[in-house]
Amino acid sequence: MKNVKIILVFAIMLLVTNVFSAIGYETFTVQENEVFTKVLVKVSREFKSLDRIFDIIERNYNNYLGNTGMINNLLNFHLSSNECLNNILIYNDKNEITNTAKAQYNIGAQLFSDNQGAFDNLFGDTYGFSIPVKTDRSYIPVIYITKPIKDSNGRIIGRILMSVDTLKITANISSIISNYDINIVICDNFGTLVYDLDMEEIGRNTLTDPMYKNFTELRELFEKRIIVEKNGEGSYSFYSTGMNQTQKKLVKWNTLEVFGGKLKVCMNSERN
Question: Is the pTM of this model over 0.85?
Answer without folding.
Answer: no
